[in-house]
Design goal:
Order of helices and strands: HEHEHHEEEEEHH
Number of strands: 7
Protein name: Septin-type G domain-containing protein
GO molecular function: GTP binding
Number of domains: 1
Oligomer: single chain
Helix content: 40-55%
Radius of gyration: 21 Å
Strand content: 5-15%
InterPro entries: G_SEPTIN_dom, P-loop_NTPase
Structural class: alpha/beta
CATH superfamily: P-loop containing nucleotide triphosphate hydrolases
Largest sheet: 3 strands, parallel
CATH topology: Rossmann fold
Pfam family, one: Septin
Organism: Allomyces macrogynus (strain ATCC 38327) (Allomyces javanicus var. macrogynus)
Shape: elongated
């Protein structure tokens, strides 16, 4: 949290000197949760706290360690818990093509895609198998049926992290790298940063008022 707020503070200072200064704000936090119920209160509290300063994207880690039914229960339970108090991907529109104008058709398509991404939260993810420190390996990839993939090898078969039937990494990649990054940035700047700036101004005004009374 300290680092996130320090970037807000940097922006608050730099924008006075140079309105076109580089954007160093944190626009997304990937929060990995263990695949078990009940979710630890510390994790839920941390997610809610972080969501006041950044877009939090909850992920269920080790999705290959439990059954599909268990995953469904976990996803629905977490989404229900978080939706009561937390804005998830809570931005309505964005300038997707950078022309400064949001067309009705463009906006409608955007909102539809966001709904699809929100309904899939939290995304289930699986970590690829990499060599341990000190171990040597010819490649980070597994070769399955003549194809190189990122995944994990088990005695019963292989899990491919890019396979939509195995996990939901495709949703996360699409969200961050292809589709919604402008919306994430816009929400950070227009909502979260402005909230922080207002809090700082009010705190400064309150301190100034207190100093004046002492005099």
């Amino acid at each position: 949290m300290g680092y996130i707020e320090s970037q807000f503070e940097t922006s608050l200072i730099e924008v006075k000197r140079n309105p076109k200064s580089a954007d160093t704000m944190v626009h997304a936090i990937l929060y990995l949760l263990p695949p078990m119920l009940p979710f630890h209160p510390v994790d839920l509290s941390a997610i809610r706290t972080l969501a006041n300063r950044a877009n939090v994207i909850p992920l269920l880690a080790h999705a290959d360690s439990i059954t599909n039914r268990q995953l469904e229960n976990l996803k629905s339970s977490l989404l229900k818990t978080l939706q009561e108090t937390l804005p998830l991907l809570d931005f309505a529109s964005a300038d997707l093509d950078g022309d400064g104008i949001i067309e009705d058709e463009e906006e409608e398509e955007f909102v539809s895609e966001i709904k699809k991404l929100k309904d899939a939260l939290p995304y289930t993810v699986i970590g690829a198998e990499f060599p341990l420190p000190g171990q040597k390996a010819q490649s980070d990839y597994l070769e399955i049926d003549g194809q190189k993939i990122l995944g994990r090898q088990y005695h019963w078969g292989c899990v491919n992290v890019d396979d939509e039937e195995h996990c939901e990494l495709h949703f996360l990649k699409y969200l961050l790298f292809e589709f919604a990054l402008p919306g994430l940035r816009s929400f950070t700047r227009c909502q979260l940063y402005e909230r922080y700036r207002t809090e700082r101004l009010m705190a400064h005004a309150g301190k100034a008022g207190g100093d004046h009374k002492e005099e």
